[in-house]
């Protein structure tokens, strides 16, 4: 029996993660994934989500994919890879065509999409996504799926995402040199949203807030449409750097203190509680009030949520968030972050963890830091259902991998 393997690769600032899953549920509207393997490696050669040292990033990719392959007991040849960074731009575009026959056909849809994405792109930019948001047939707007409807004029509202060609190329190179092929680049916030938001939430209005290490991703939806995508240059590393300064300790110590003892809301901490940190000299230790750590973390998080609120307000979608906020990313594992963010945002918040549509070893990705990599596989599986492309089939993995490598060099 042929099995369709899908793989996601997320090269984050701190960790590079890989997920390998089998696509199930053919014929159903939304695919299901049977999780087979997860891999994680420390990321090297990436700054602010952009590859700056190909050799180092290649090594991270190789280690991460190998680990997932070993756990899954299969080899893959291609990955759906996340792309992010402040080079990403979004714009809305309209396309209009006359309907060819009596009712709207697949061909009319293809034509209207083509018209909508026919915007002039400078050579240093690359198209990442063209996402149809809704259609207007003659005078009727707000149509999600116009296939088979009758009309004479079809209009499409398409959300376009572009990125710097150099960033995309370097990402592909790092993956190719590790021996794999990039099936497609997916904008990181879109992948994350696919893993943790429900269709109902997107309809009612929701904002995904993914706080990773160096960035905070925002992706807002209303009435099923993308309303805003943004990436703020702050994240868990910003909290750690505050602890480095506030406690005069090295970065690695501060990171450990944050992950082990950090709390997002100082009022949740017993003022008497202390924790042990390394002292000024070798072998020395000192006691620090846990409340102090919480204060430092809370202040910065408050500022981050203030920025998120400000951005959502500026683009006019703060009032549309009937379903509130879904918080995810590594930093969403911080103790007390739910209470803290609810206060700061003034609306309901839930922690987004990949769960929906997953079986097999689903527990191994049930953490907020795996939202992006899981979303990549789900996103890829959606496209596979539509087009039949984007999967590795279970067979002679190493031969196809060498194939990918040869294609890259010749
Ligand atoms: N238990 C925890 N408490 C607090 N912070 C945590 C915890 N676990 C992880 N983090 C923080 O989460 C961040 C890593 O998150 P994640 O893995 O989502 O980032 P990334 O994908 O590597 O980075 P980015 O998406 O910004 O490129 C780090 O700053 C880490 O310290
Ligand atoms: Mg990330």
CATH first level of the domain at 199-353: which class? Alpha Beta
Q: What is the CATH architecture term of the domain at 199-353?
A: 2-Layer Sandwich
**Biggest sheet record:** 7 strands, mixed
User: What is the CATH homologous superfamily assignment of the domain at 199-353?
Assistant: ATPase, nucleotide binding domain
Query: What is the count of β-strands?
Result: 20
Shape assignment: globular
Beta-strand residue fraction: 25-35%
Mean pLDDT across the residues is 93
CATH topology of the domain at 199-353: Nucleotidyltransferase, domain 5
Determine Rg (CA atoms, Å): 23 Å
Helix content: 25-40%
Number of DSSP helices? 11
Distance between the termini: 33 Å
Low-pLDDT regions: none
Q: Which ions and ligands are bound to the chains?
A: adenosine-5'-triphosphate, magnesium ion
SS content category: alpha/beta
């Amino acid at each position: 029996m042929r099995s369709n393997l899908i793989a996601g690769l997320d090269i984050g600032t701190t960790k590079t993660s890989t997920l390998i899953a089998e696509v199930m549920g053919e014929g159903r509207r939304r695919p299901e994934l049977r999780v087979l393997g997860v891999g994680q490696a420390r990321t090297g050669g990436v700054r602010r989500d952009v590859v700056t040292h190909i050799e180092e990033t290649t090594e991270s990719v190789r280690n991460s994919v190998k680990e997932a392959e070993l756990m899954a007991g299969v080899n893959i040849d291609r990955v759906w890879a996340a792309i992010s960074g402040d080079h990403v731009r979004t714009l809305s575009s309209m396309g209009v065509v006359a309907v060819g026959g009596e009712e709207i056909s697949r061909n009319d849809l293809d034509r209207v999409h083509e018209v909508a994405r026919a915007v002039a792109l400078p050579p240093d930019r690359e198209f990442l996504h063209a996402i149809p948001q809704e259609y207007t047939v003659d005078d009727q707007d707000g149509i999600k799926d116009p296939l088979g409807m009758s009309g004479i004029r079809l209009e499409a509202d398409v959300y376009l995402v572009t990125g710097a060609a150099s960033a995309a190329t370097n990402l592909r190179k790092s993956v190719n040199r590790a021996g794999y092929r990039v099936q497609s680049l997916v904008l990181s916030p879109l992948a994350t949203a696919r893993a943790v938001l429900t269709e109902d939430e997107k309809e009612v209005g929701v904002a995904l807030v993914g706080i990773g290490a160096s960035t905070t991703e925002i992706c807002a939806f209303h009435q099923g449409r993308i309303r805003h995508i943004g990436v703020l240059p702050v994240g868990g590393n910003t909290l750690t750097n505050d602890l480095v300064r506030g406690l005069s300790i090295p970065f690695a110590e501060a990171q450990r203190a944050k992950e082990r003892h950090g709390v997002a809301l100082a009022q949740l901490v017993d003022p008497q509680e202390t924790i042990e940190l390394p002292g000024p000299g070798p072998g020395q230790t000192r006691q620090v009030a846990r409340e102090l750590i919480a204060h430092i973390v809370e202040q910065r998080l408050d500022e981050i949520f203030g920025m998120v609120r400000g951005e959502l307000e500026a683009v006019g979608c703060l009032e549309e968030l009937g379903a509130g906020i879904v918080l995810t990313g590594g930093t969403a594992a911080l103790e007390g972050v739910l209470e803290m963010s609810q206060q700061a945002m003034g609306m309901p918040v839930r922690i987004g963890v990949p769960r929906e549509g997953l079986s097999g070893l689903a527990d191994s990705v049930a953490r907020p830091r795996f939202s992006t990599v899981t979303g990549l596989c789900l996103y890829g599986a959606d496209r596979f259902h539509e087009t039949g492309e984007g999967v590795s089939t279970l067979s002679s993995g190493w031969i196809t991998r060498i194939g990918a490598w040869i294609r890259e060099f010749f």
